[in-house]
Amino acid sequence: MDSQYVYALIALLVGASVGVAAGYAARKQLAQKNIDSAEANAERMVKEAETKAQQALMDAEGKGQKLVLEATQKSLKMIEDSKTEDENRRKELRVIQQKLQTIEVDLANRMKELQRKQEDLFEKNTKVEDLRIELSKQKEEQVKKLEAVAKLTTDEAKEVLMKELEETAGDELMSRLRKIERTNSDEIEKAARAKLSVVIQRIASSHAVETTTTNVPLPSDDMKGRIIGKEGRNIKAVEHMTGCEIIVDDTPGVITISGFSPIRRQVARIALQKLLEDGRIHPGRIEEAVEEAKRDLAVDIKKAGEDALYELGIPVQSIDPKLVQILGRLKYRTSYGQNVLRHSIEVANIAALLAQDLGADVAVCKKGGILHDIGKAVDHDVQGAHPEIGYNIMKKFGLPEEICYQSIGHHEDKPKTLEAILVKAADAISGARPGARKDTYELYVQRLEELEKTAASFPGIEKVYAIQAGREVRVFVEPKMIDDFAAFRLAKDIAKKIESELKYPGEIRVNVIRETRVTEYAR
Disulfide: which of 140, 224, 351, 358 matches 369 by Cβ 3.0-4.6 Å? Predict the structure, then answer.
């Protein structure tokens, strides 16, 4: 049993070995077959690749030869084109070179010609200078001979000639001058009256302008003692803090504030009114009232400047706020009793309307008119005349020259611009209209005396009268010393002296009167 099992096992093993060997052999044969097939395919693919490569090489060689041929042809063509272009450029350069040579030759000839002309001119100039010197010497010799013959110098001869002309042709010259002046003045005055009449009718202003008062009314005379205080301490405190003098006299129900600066007077007035309303009057309260008055006045001044600009239609933003503040100070400044701020508004309106009719710059006239007296706002604190002060203020705030010039131009005899002439005319209209200005009796008499004294300072004057409230001066001359022609000239000299030495509102008319009386008796 065991031996059979062994044999069977051996047979099984032998069979398995034989199967394995057979399978290996079959697999090896299959693998060899596959290898042979793969090698054949590979060899076939290699041959095909070699064939294609040879074909491609042959094709590439053909194309390469073709490309080389084309490139060679293009190169030859480019070489030929380059040669042609180079030849053309050479021809152009030769032409240009020939032109340059021609120009150089022409310039050289011209330079020679100019040099020759310059030498000729220099020679002629030398001859002319020699002739001029010779003529000058001959003229001097002739003048000396004439002076020796006439026994007069040149200046003396001129003086004699002028006197003879005045004697012989004085009347004729005077009549012609008067005729020309009368004709021109009549035409100009007629046109000016037509323009001004229309403009003034369009301006509605009050006939009387309020003046800044320096009087403070009192509820009772008992308040005078309280304002003075014990040993005068209250009134001293007010005067020290405001810089003004408080005058307490016998005038019932009122005290007077005296001060050089109108702003300080206004601060003192407001402070005293606050103290009177409060009833407490002592140095501590006085100091508080003065500070409150300064703040209230600053607000009121700024508002006055802004209201003036709004009234004229000028944007407030176009003016520096500090300049608006200075403009508002004119509310408390008067000139011959006329409020300067109201006067400036009138000037701006009149100048703007005149500018519309004459084609001038309306904006310049408006701004120049409202600011033409800006220097009067600080002329109590700054040294100098108000035209120059106003010009410097406007320059400081960056206003254009044509506007700044209005401050100086309205005081010049002949302003440089049309706008300045209009502002000057508007200033005269506003200041000279009825009810605009007033004067104290003392200043009025003083102004008339100065006017008569100035007119009487010329020789040959017999009497001088200032009439029509100083608007006219009548000068009577001695007929033996002053003839008609000299009277005409004397009137102009008197007017110029009045303009340069005196200050006055409006204009002054100068009348020179020469009267000859001949008396004879029949017996």
Answer: 351
465 lies in some domain? yes
The full DSSP string for 159-199 is HHHHHHHHHHHHHHHHHHHHHHHHHHHHHHHHHHHHHHHHH
CATH of residue 503's domain is 3.30.300.20
| Residues contacting 65, CB < 8 A, separation 6+ | none
- Note whether 351 and 486 are same-domain residues: no
Q: State whether residue 485 is helix, strand or coil.
A: helix
What mean pLDDT value characterizes the chain? 80
With contact defined as beta carbons under 8 Å apart, do 318 and 371 qualify?
no
Longest distance between any two alpha carbons in the chain, whole Å? 224
Is 262 within 8 Å of 243 (Cβ atoms)? no
Q: Is residue 229 exposed (0-12), middle (13-18) or buried (19+ Cβ within 10 Å)?
A: middle
| 499 and 453 in a common domain | yes
How many CA atoms lie less than 13 Å away from 421 in the CB half-sphere?
11
Count, residues in the chain:
523
What is the total count of domains within the chain?
Answer: 3
Q: For a pLDDT cut of 90, what percent of the chain falls above it?
A: 6
| Domain CATH number, residue 346 | 1.10.3210
DSSP-assigned states of every residue in 280-315:
--SHHHHHHHHHHHHHHHHHHHHHHHHHHHHHHT--
pLDDT in tens, 478-520: 888 888 778 888 888 998 888 888 877 667 889 998 887 777 8
pLDDT number for residue 208: 45
Phi, psi of 334 (to 5 degrees): -125, 155
Token output for 282: 């002592």
Q: Which helix (H) or strand (E) holds 474?
A: strand 472-477
Q: Which residues pair with 473 in a beta bridge?
A: 466, 510
CA proximity to 293, closest of 253, 314, 263: 263
Q: Are residues 300 and 388 in the same domain?
A: yes
Specify whether 446 is located in the same domain as 498.
yes
Q: 350 and 471 in one domain?
A: no
Same domain, 279 and 361: yes
Q: Say yes or no: 233 and 171 in one domain.
A: no
Residues 421 and 469 in one domain: no
The answer to whether the beta carbons of residues 365 and 312 sit under 8 Å apart is: no
Residue 401 belongs to some domain of the structure: yes
Q: How far apart are CA 289 and CA 236, in angstroms?
A: 15
Residues with Cβ within 8 Å of residue 369, at least 6 apart in sequence: 344, 347, 348, 349, 350, 351, 352, 406, 423, 426
Which range marks the domain in which residue 479 is found? 441-514
Q: Mark the ranges of the chain whose per-residue pLDDT is less than 70.
A: 1-32, 34-36, 38-39, 56-57, 60-62, 64, 165-186, 188-189, 192-193, 196-214, 433-442, 505-506
**180 in a structural domain:** yes
Sequence-separated (6 or more) residues with CB below 8 Å from residue 411: 387, 424
pLDDT single digits (tens) 6-57 = 666 666 666 666 665 666 666 666 666 766 676 677 777 877 877 777 776 6
